[in-house]
Amino acid sequence: ILNRGIPMVRYADDLALFFRTKEEARDGEKLVRDLLSELSLSIPTLNQCSKTKIISHSDALEFLGREIVYIKEINKFVAKISNKQISKILSRLAEEYSFKNLVDQNKNFHDATFALSRSISSYLGIYRDTYNFGQFSDSVRGHARSIIVSLFKEIFGAEALTKISAAGRKFLGIEILDSI
């Protein structure tokens, strides 16, 4: 495909090919089908339920937890982490690091905060190349602080947290309580 001048992104068996027109995209689809059939492989037919799609450059393309979008102001395509993916990650973190789940796994506070930190670092590493990384980083780090606050609330009760000084909240990494 590359030797035919068709821009593409590939990861394992996932492909995103980029064409200038819908006609070029249809011709490209036929080319890909023909090349894959030579290898006894195939792609699903085009329909609304299929991962195989032809979309306009003005539509977002979801690909491997990212969306490839055209940003008119800078006149180029960029990879962003989608809001849907951000929500999925935040939900996964909240569930995985809930007090009940941690207790059920026989984890202590130190284990939990260490694992949470590693999870956050992993997500930040995975998506560091995205256009909206700053927003994602802020969201994930803020959510991690909310998780820690939730753990403290579950352990000590919300009222006990109000008695901690500002310096104490900062030390514990729960200064988010100041805004609640």
Keyword list:
single chain; 180 residues; alpha+beta; three-stranded antiparallel β-sheet; two-stranded antiparallel sheet; 7 helices
Largest sheet: 3 strands, antiparallel
Indicate the radius of gyration in whole angstroms: 23 Å
Strand content: 5-15%
Query: How are the strands of the largest sheet arranged?
Result: 3-4-5
> Structural class, from secondary structure content?
alpha+beta
Low-confidence stretches: none
Entry summary:
By secondary structure, the protein is of the alpha+beta class.
List the topology elements.
Elements: E1 8-11, E2 14-17, H1 22-38, E3 61-63, E4 66-71, E5 76-81, H2 83-96, H3 99-104, H4 109-126, H5 133-156, H6 158-162, H7 166-172
Antiparallel strand pairs: 1-2, 3-4, 4-5
Tell me what the structure shows.
- This protein has 7 helices and 5 strands.
- The chain has 180 residues and is an alpha+beta fold.
